Amino acid sequence: MASSAVARETIVSLRHQIAKIEGRLAETFDGEHGDVHLRRQDGLPQGDFLATGAERFDAALGGGLPGAGLTEIHATGMRDAGAAAGFVMGLVHLLVERTSSPLLWVGLSESFREAGYPYPPGIRFLHGIDPSRLLIAQAQKLNDALWIAEQAASIDGFAAILLETRGPSAHLDLTATRRLHRRALDAGRPLFLLRQMAVCEPTAAPFRMVITSAPAGTRYLLGKPLARSIGPPAFLVRITKNRINPPSEFILEWNAHAHAFHERTAADPVVVVPASQHRATAAAAPGTILAFSSPAGSTPAGGQPSGEQHPAHRGHG
Amino acid sequence: MVSRQENNTQRIAAMDEEAARLRLKPGMGIADARAMHPGIEVIAEDAEADRRLLEALADWCDRYTPLVALDGVEGLFLDVTGCVHLFGGEKAMLAGMLERFSEQGFRVRAGLASTPGAAWAAARFSATGTILQEGDERSFLENLPLAALRIEARTISGLESVGLRAIGMILTAPRAPLARRFGSLLLLRLDQALGEIEESISPRLPVAALSVERHLAEPIGLVEDIERLLLLLSGSLRRDLERRGEGARVFELLLFRVDGAVSRISVGSSLPLREAGPVGRLFHERLAALGTTLEPGYGFDLVRLSAFETARLDMPQADLAGAGSTQGEDIVLFADRVRARLGTASVLQPHLAQSHVPERASLLVLFDGGAGPRQPPTVHNPERPLRLFARPEPIEVPLTEVPEGPPRNFRWRRSVHRVARAEGPERISPEWWLTSVPDVEADETEMDKDEREAKREAAQKEAVAIETARMTRDYFRVEDSEGHRFWLYREGLYGRQEVVPRWYLQGVSA
Amino acid sequence: MSDPAYVEFGVQSNFSFLRGASKPEELVVAAAFLGHAGMGLADRNTVAGVVRAWSQSKHVGTGPDGKPVSLPYHPGARLVFCDGTPDVLAYPRDRRGWGNLCRLLTQANMRDESPKGDPHLYKADLLEWGDCMSLAVLPDVEGEADAILVLLRELTQRFGKAIRLAVSPSYSGNDRFRLDEAAALARAAGMPMMATNDVLYHAAERRPLQDVLTAIRLKTTVMNAGFELDANAERHMKTPEEMARLFRDHPRAIAETVRFAGELKFSLEELKYNLPDEKTRDGATQQEELERLTWEGAAFRWPGGIKPKDKETLEHELMLVRKLGYAGYFLIVHDIVRHAREELKVLCQGRGSAANSLICYCLCITDIGPDRMDTLFERFISEERGEPPDIDVDFEHERRPEVLRYVYEKYSDKHTSLAAAVISYRGRSALREVSKAMGLSDDVQSALSGSVWGWWSSKMGEKEAVAGGLKKSDPMASHVISLANEILEFPRHLTQHVGGFVITRDRLDEIVPIVKTAMDDRKMVEWDKDDLDATGLFKFDVLALGMLSCLKRCFVLVKNHYPEEPAHSLATIKEGLPEVYDMICRADTLGVFQIESRAQMSMLPRLRPQKFYDLVIEVAIVRPGPIQGNMVHPYLRRRTGKEKIEAPGNLGKILERTLGVPLFQEQAMRIAIECAGFAPAKADKLRRAMATFRRTGTIHKLRDEFIKGMTDNDYEREFAERCFAQIEGFGEYGFPESHAASFALLVYASCWFKTFYPDVFCAAILNSQPMGFYAPAQLVRDARDHGVEIRAVDINHSIWDCTLEKAEFVPKRILEKHAEMRGVIRTTHAVRLGFRQIKGLSLENMEAFVEKRGAGYESVRDVWLRSGLDVGAIEKLAQADAFRSIGLDRRAALWQVRALDRKSAAETMPLFDRPHLRLRDNEPATCLPVMPAGEHVIHDYRALGLSLKAHPLSFLRGRLNASRVTPNERLPDVRNGSRIVVAGLVLVRQRPGKGNAIFLTLEDENGIANIIVWQRDFERLLPVIMGSKFIRVAGRLQCESGVIHIVAQTMEDLTPWLSDLSEKARSIETLARADEIKRPGTDQRLRPPSVHQPANDSQAHAEASSVMPKGRNFQ
Question: Which tens digit of pLDDT belongs to each residue from A85-127?
């Protein structure tokens, strides 16, 4: 496993270099907002591209994720907040690795309460980001969160900024995103706008992606997949706004050991298990099945309780 | 009483009058003292706190003279040469000082003399407030014990062992044999105390290049008032700096509180400053950042502004806080700004603790401006979710395996999730030392005391076992049929009548 | 047996120090209770716990037929490597496998880089010694699979079918993965997978204790131990069903444990009886040799011919020895004793169950012959118990190493080694370490542990918590107390037994692993005496006894200074001299062996020993056991004829010598056997139950059986109960008669010297310090009370040791209270104190000092130039006032010493090699004040611990008289029962037995006062008792049989008075008292303004009184 990951990383970085040599970078940005003009004053684009390791995905973005400016990440349902955060942290990982600067995660108290606070041990496990590199700012109001993000974008200190909001908001219009984008471009830092339960509103961000959870990969045992195991997390990534390429869709896996994305292909022995098969897999688990009477009083799902049945008791209201 | 660790034994370092009445003595072993009086209350000495207190007192003494030196762990030297007239003469100054200390609740002994050595002895071996006139040192010291000389205990005991017990006996003895036997420090101290050899004290703090201060008849406490006063002071300071053609890189604001506490606030700048405006703005940020940590209490009655690290300043000064330029502002200042605007709880940093219990393993604490938490390196890196809920959220689990299987499905926030895959359990027991051992009363009718005690203990063990079973969590990583990954747990083990397991969802994963 | 069958092999007990949290016995019982088909014990690189588990495994319950049920048990070890190799469980299959395991562990233990108790083990060791064992490797299955596979394949190649892959569920969330991975690895490596739970404790409730152990091991607190602690409590013994459920996907891993067990045929039983053959003359057998030596000895002991009765006894003993095959054992002891006595000239004496046999008397192992008392063959050897005989030999404590060296040389370290002693948690250490691990502050820790007055294990509870300032209901306190109770008797580490040896015929390191001790040249085995007993290995004790050193010095001094005296050995001291017994009856026994304590002294005038056996009883009766068992008073009453002897049935015979009161362990055993019908093995169990396992509750069962047994034999129930209570009382501290007899001989010998030659006795005992109850000050004073002149230490007269100098003896100097001795004492010498009395001097330096003394030192400077002593040592001599012979008193000498360069003469003086130049110093004279006498006494105490000039209290007598204190010498004239006030320095505080009284000995310038404080007054008086050096006591005088006590009613600490002796106190009094700010409402917690505050009598007091002895505290 490890060796293949190393190989993949090498290829990714090679590809990245080739892309640089070919000068494809300049083409990937359009001049709609005069950004290109601005950046070309000194002859070089500010920030470069973050190759995620998933080649097709990088190509769709024109070489990788922009290293500066605003990128919008949407999680449509609240349940996808974990996936969206995991996906962004995967991107952030690429940045954090290059500098010693910390990462700022700005959120609304409400969004943290609803979707959970960032949990540094988990981030460390999955993305290898040291908790000491993480700073969290929380605000009650979106305006304040925007202010924090803007202030943060205008200083040199952060490797990346993640602004998390929840639901549609009039404050987060084209003007606001433009300001954010400008700040981030000026600072040469990426700013990720993570919008929970978002709807597609106009945005100044060059890219907008919608993230949904996809079934995880499996774990391997001496080269063989271990049935029913939960392996590398996977994301369904839909690029819904892309100025250089038509909208596209990918299933990306995050490899926690290699710290790289990897596109899932048909050849991967991955269980993208249809929902209908879940029952069969789960039922294979041994042990006694215990049924509780549901609070609504409906009949318990599953089979007949076995002889070892635990006395039924109240569930949680 | 206060204990101190000396060579592996606890000894009494200090104590109150109550303890003295019990015939306890400083230097006595705590164990011996306890053997005599099992009920005594012992507090471990906190040398650091004592030092801080002494330094605070030294700060306070700054009001009399900038030349304040620490003397060991329990004394202060004040060089009041040239300051006395400001306080109405020696006598008035000393009396005033003693009174103000006593108002603050300190018992202080003081002595004033023309040599540090004699003053030291006067403070300790004479009525407090003693003022020695120049030339009286010899006759004063003659009758004092050797300890009044600031010499090592070893030298004292050496002198005493040959019968030389009072300073007078040494004054009359031939000097050469003394120096030969007891070293030159003895004679040096003697000469210093008598003023035959000059001795200077080394002040604790650098003396400011320039400072201006204002005594206030009416103490102030509001930040606005402080800032207003600050502006006035920095105006005067500006004139002084201008006269010297200099600016300063460090400014320090000293706020002397009525009750003796001294707040010291300093700001630094990368370029020398002189103008009142920018200095004021720097302090504005700092004061705002300090927020409530600056406690005015009953107010400040003396405010002093000092300038350090002065340097030539030739060019007229531009306003540093001018528009746009925030170059060089670091994360700390950014955080200060955010907190100044949105409250201290707005910027947080993780603090990792070595605990198996997930919510205790990582806490978000107030950002302290440091370079991030220094975490001990750990190889323990278990798989954990990316996001954790502030509180574990109860879920309904209609179907599970006993004794320790994952749920088949569960209802969380009104929607049902079907579990497609699950891994676990990861079993985490409660941190037992935080729980209490229930006090079980044994049946008093039992005849044998040993037996009773044994039964009581068994009952207690049983109670602890039940409590443990009730509090133990089995964590599962599950993926639902839509590919969402959750971290949930069952609290309570199956198999015990008294335990009703409950399910919670604590986090979500990528 | 339950289905599925399962045997747990991954088991660590608390002999995996600070890791395992259950005793081996608990683990065995739990395994049996849970229905395991057997158990293996595998502690970390040690087999120290296997014998205990084995003993328990033979009796894990009682079957329906009343016979003990056993559990199949397999001793092994968990090999923990230092080179990254995963742990391996190693279980010997046969005797050779056991030998290999022992060799393997020994080899690792003995490595230079292995610290004591932490063997460095390498994979190569396993490859070298792993034959004839079944092995199970415990790899980290989550680690790098390729690396693991390489290792597994290597092991399969080397060990074939003997090796397994063991894996345990960890409850870390990954178990399915881990077990599957393990199965895959095992399959790939071609070895079976075996289930284990990697047990650290027998039940889940022990997890807190295991956490505490971890914290102690890592020297941190439980709260700070973090991830070093396990996340859960799963590493306990689980039922086979539970194991099968956990391994449901791998049922063969469960079955494999049974297959593994099936391969293990080794039992510790196979190690039994392994005694080397002693060399014999002309190829005789061991028995023949023993018989020859015995009869030769008999001819020596009885030149006039052996009495028929003794001959008969000897024949009986020899027959028994032959039958049991113990001849070799006697020969070994005989040889060692012979070598010590004849080659090394070391004084020694045997004791122990077999030592008082006539054989031992004939072999000169002991000197207690039938003329001193009837032979004590009662507990010689128990035929039925099959226990090896037990002979302990005491040697002069300073010369024991020479004896040990001989033993080593003779048997070589291949065949002999010291036994281990298991250092266990006792009340105090348990509380201290647990409270430290629980993060309690230092002073609470010391207060808690200080609250335990004894060293033994007893349950801790409310009392201790309160002493630590905690409430038992406080959660932390209840954790600490309950954990401390749990950790009681847990082994902390192994240390060498004081003198127990094991000697074997086979290679010792193939019988038991050998480990390092704290001393470089000594090695020990991993088993303690009980383990050796249980495995049937032979051991005997080479012990050190201070009194033997003292007696040896007595013999030498007598030989050198009193050549006409015929007593040159224990055997030649004349027995039965009335002068000696008279002195004993007067309790004039300060300093002698055993009967010198307060409790003993108060018993002597009542017991009035008249013959040797009385001393045997005296030694045995004044001990906590008999006192608690309420035997003292019945014995006294019967001895004085106030009570009839009550001993029905067989008891009469058993208790004849002790007037119907059971005093000795031998008697308890015989009562159990002959009156209660116990089988000998069961009687032995009773003894052990009373001695060690008081907490397990088995004692209750035995009690019922005992009483039933006696009532069945027609003893009255009440009588049987009383009998048992008496036996139980001394169970813990009981004293075998054979030991008491050997000790009594030394008692008599030391009393003999004290009676006739108090000068010899004084010098000898001072030269043997530290030993005994009393400090040199009291020993010197006692000698002076008996008229002996004591001369001060002097640079020109003393040597290191105290010596005798010819002097006229003036019987009139003997104090009135010892007047009877005036015609008895034969002394013609004075005692010159030696340099050893001066604190802080080294023997080596002072020997050189004496050697270079020549015709004598002339001045301080001369000493500095010639003696080679550094200034520090010379100053110590001056402090001790040892320059008097050259006309310098202490102060003058000190003044001169101060003038010396701090470096040694050799370093600074180019003229050092020309001391004859006698260079003089010229410096202005300094006038020093004369040192007052009281000050001198203080300095004497500081430097020497005693003063010959005066008693400190003699300076205070005026003040004492004024406060109506009666001098101690006048106590005999005070009417019994009257109220009285006495005062004195505290010599000894003693709180014997259950501690319901405290005895204090107070000394003034002319005598001693004995104070008793009863429990009801403790709370009130304890502060004074413990905190004072000088006490005034008001109380009531009680006199019984000439023993005078004062029952304390009130006490006052007069320690500050001692400061009156000091010159300083008086000089300071003249100084003005500094005023103090005294205002109400001052913060009481603040430091006083200055510790330099003068005229504070606490300071002067502290200095003067700190010099005085604190008094000694005894249990």
Answer: 999 999 988 887 777 788 999 999 999 999 999 999 999 999 9
DSSP H helices, C474-528, are 475-487
Counting residues of chain C whose pLDDT is more than 90, the rounded percentage is 33
SS3 per residue for B63-107:
CCCCCEEEECCCEEEECCCCCHHHHCHHHHHHHHHHHHHHHCCCC
**Which chain A residue's Cα is nearest to B343?**
A139
What DSSP state is assigned to residue C819?
G
Please tell me which of the candidates C176, C184, C248 has its beta carbon nearest to residue A222: C184
Residue C70 burial (C-beta neighbours within 10 Å; 0-12, 13-18, 19+)? middle
Contact B478, B406 (CB under 8 A): yes
In chain B, which among 399-428 make CB contacts under 8 A with chain A?
Answer: 399-406, 408-409, 413, 418-423
E strand or H helix at B308:
strand B300-312
Q: Do A222 and C176 touch (CB under 8 A)?
A: no
Q: Which residue of B has its CA nearest to C897?
A: B181
Q: Give the CATH number, domain containing residue A184.
A: 3.40.50.300
3-state SS record for B436-464:
CCCCCCCCCCCCCHHHHHHHHHHHHHHHH
Considering chain B, what percentage of its residues have pLDDT values greater than 70?
Answer: 84
Both tokens of residue C220?
């941190």
Say how far apart CA C699 and CA C682 lie, in whole Å. 12
Helix (H) or strand (E) holding B223: helix B223-244
Is the alpha carbon torsion for C491, C496, C498, C503 positive or negative?
A: positive
Q: Which two tokens stand for residue C1040?
A: 């019984």
> In the numeric block, which tokens belong to residue B480?
């639902």
Q: C695-731 in b/e burial notation, b at 16+ Cβ within 10 A?
A: eeeebeebbebbbebbbeeebeeebbbebbebbbbbb
Instruction: Give yes or no: residues A247 and A307 share one domain.
Output: no
Q: A229 and C177: CB-CB below 8 Å?
A: yes
Burial class of C163 by CB neighbour count within 10 A (0 to 12, 13 to 18, 19+)? buried
Tens digits of residue pLDDT in C5-30: 999 999 999 999 999 999 999 999 99
Domain assignment present for A270: no
Domain shared by A252 and A285, yes or no: no
Q: Which one of A73, A76, A78, A79 would you mutate to disrupt binding with B, by most B Cβ within 10 Å of its Cβ?
A: A79
Contacts of B165 in chain C (CB under 8 A): 1063-1064, 1067-1068
CB-based contact C528:C424 (threshold 8 Å): no
Residues A207 and A296 in one domain: no
Q: CA of C233 to nearest chain B CA: how many angstroms apart?
A: 7
**Nearest beta carbon to residue C1094 from set B145, B439, B457:** B145
Query: Which has the minimum average pLDDT: B496-500, C781-785, C1035-1039, C1044-1048?
Result: B496-500
Is residue C1093 a contact partner of residue C1100, using CB atoms and an 8 Å limit? no
Residues C312 and C209: their CA atoms lie apart, in Å, by 59
Q: How far apart are the first and last CA of chain B?
A: 57
- Kindly indicate the confidence band of residue C1007, based on its pLDDT and cuts at 50, 70 and 90: confident
For A19, the domain range is 14-43
B353 touches chain C (CB under 8 A): yes
Closest CA to C135 of C81, C58, C200, C202: C81
Looking at 3.30.930.10, 3.40.50.720, 3.40.50.1220, 3.30.1490.100, the CATH number of the domain B210-314+328-340 comes to: 3.30.1490.100
B326 pLDDT tier (thresholds 50, 70, 90):
very low
The verdict on a CB contact (< 8 Å) between B408 and A87 is no
Q: How many CB pairs under 8 A join B and C?
A: 236
What one-character DSSP code corresponds to residue C8? B
